[in-house]
Amino acid sequence: xxxxxxxxxxxxxxxxxxxxxxxDAGGRGWRTRGxxxxxxxxxxxxxxxxxxxxxxxxxxxxxxxxEIIGSVSLVPETxxxxxxxxxxxxxxxxxxxxxxxxxxxxxxxxxxxxxxxCSVTAYAFARIRFRGSKVFFLCMIATMLLPFHVVIIxxxxxxxxxDMINTYWPLLLGKFLAADAFFVFLMIQFIxxxxxxxxxxxxxxxxxxxxxxxxxxxxxxxxALVTSSIFAFIWSWNDFFGPLLYLKDPGMYTMPLALRLYxxxxxxxxxxxxxxxxxxxLVPVVLFFLAFQRYLVAGVATxxxxx
Length: 307
Known about the structure:
Residues 1-28 are annotated as: Disordered. It contains 15 helices and no strands.
């Protein structure tokens, strides 16, 4: 019997070929590690560029006012807590805690209004068939394309005729009337991803739309509700133009307006206190996000389980 040796066997039994194979694998390994190292260096560089302004703001809150303007140095030459003492003392005869409470009232009320009104509206568009539903849906989507500045004057005229200027109603009424089309659209898309078998099972048990929404759909909407709540809270807390337009009494000012009070182009500006106030204004937003982050992550993790 003739013994035949294949080409593969020759390659695997040749020591020089094995050394070349190990050399190729080693080269690929070095190239992979080199690419990973370059990627991580670039990622860290981008992260430093993005976080540097925030770090500068934090460190500037501990600097005297004369060291803030015209300096990009991160480490303060003179470390001081006077800026925080000035911020806690308030400004214009209004205490710091008044600004905090006013902002919390608007932010929490905005979250409640968005969750209640937008969830109901989204259920109606996603699950109830009624005449003109597609037209109303298109009109709602069209409002997302309108710049906010287009409707400022008509809204101000309406609220002025209703004697609502210098109240919180102009800032909250739209939240309770599902005027935020973004949140409505977000919840509509989420509800459409839920199986209709749940609705049919509820109807077989004798549940109407109200019972189906509250007992079946609403508990499953927690990821969308948490996401909407986070955005509604942050947007309301950071809103500057709305309170500036409708609020006239300094005792009703929010944190963004309080930050503006420390900067005056006609007199002395306290940039140190403004930086300290900005840091204090970030604390509730960060705490709110951290409190609901686990629900948001859990919702994203179970998103693919619907079917």
